Amino acid sequence: METREFKIKFFTGAFFLIGLGMIFWIIFTIGKDKGFTQPKFRMDILFGNVGGLIEGAPVQLSGVNIGTVSEINFLDREDQGKRVRVRVNIFNKYRNQLEQKVRFSIKTEGILGEKLIEIAVSEDGQKVDFLKAAIGEDPINVQDLAHVFADAAESFTQT
Question: Can you name the residues that pair with 150 across neighbouring β-strands?
Answer without folding.
Answer: none
